């Protein structure tokens, strides 16, 4: 995941969370700040149909009958535990959280955290790779007549967003900070066919 992608996602998420629209001026928030979150997971399975430990070549067949052959890299631990007939499960999850909060004095920022985990030695091959990108932007202007909000990002860049639901702006004020966190995780595991 690139930082640029995170910034694009941040703009999209701000649009979703705020619902495009704002008014100039500032006010103290009377109610809860807008928040949006969504998570989607896709799961696919395939069956190991051929395996050559010497060359590390693996052939799998997907549920729709398609066959794929690839070389398992040296990073794949425990390849010797895999048997023909084992099931390979791939699970991809992405989530987004957009949260508007009162400023605590911190400047808009962007951060990326990556994590990698894999099965211990002797177990069936498995691993999870994840990345989380968090971008924050300050609300510098709200135009309630046109339902537009202006955000100032970590690089000082300004972006005007159209808010779809003006009610989401009722408790939003100039100076509030919009936090967008986009997370992706890919988990792969090999399981014996029961």
TrEMBL record:
Q: Would you indicate the residue range of the signal peptide?
A: 1-29
The highest taxon in the source lineage is Bacteria
Q: Which UniProt keywords apply?
A: Signal
This chain belongs to the protein called: DUF5666 domain-containing protein
Protein species of origin = Anaeromyxobacter oryzae
């Amino acid at each position: 995941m690139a930082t640029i992608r995170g910034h694009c996602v941040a703009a999209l998420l701000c649009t979703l969370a705020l619902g495009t629209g704002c008014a100039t001026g500032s006010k103290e928030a009377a109610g809860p700040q807008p928040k949006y979150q969504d998570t989607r997971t896709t799961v696919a399975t395939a069956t190991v149909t051929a395996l050559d430990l010497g060359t590390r070549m693996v052939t799998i067949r997907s549920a729709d009958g398609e066959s794929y052959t690839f070389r398992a890299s040296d990073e794949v631990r425990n390849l010797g535990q895999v048997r023909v007939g084992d099931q390979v499960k791939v699970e991809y999850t992405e989530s987004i959280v957009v949260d508007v909060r009162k400023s605590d004095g911190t400047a808009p920022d962007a951060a990326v955290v990556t994590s990698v985990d894999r099965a211990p030695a002797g177990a069936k091959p498995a691993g999870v790779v994840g990345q989380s990108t968090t971008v924050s932007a300050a609300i510098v202007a709200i135009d309630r007549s046109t339902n537009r909000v202006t955000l100032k990002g970590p690089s000082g860049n300004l972006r005007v967003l159209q808010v779809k639901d003006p009610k989401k702006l009722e408790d939003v004020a100039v100076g509030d900070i919009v936090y967008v966190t986009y997370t992706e995780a890919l988990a792969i595991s090999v399981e014996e066919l029961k």
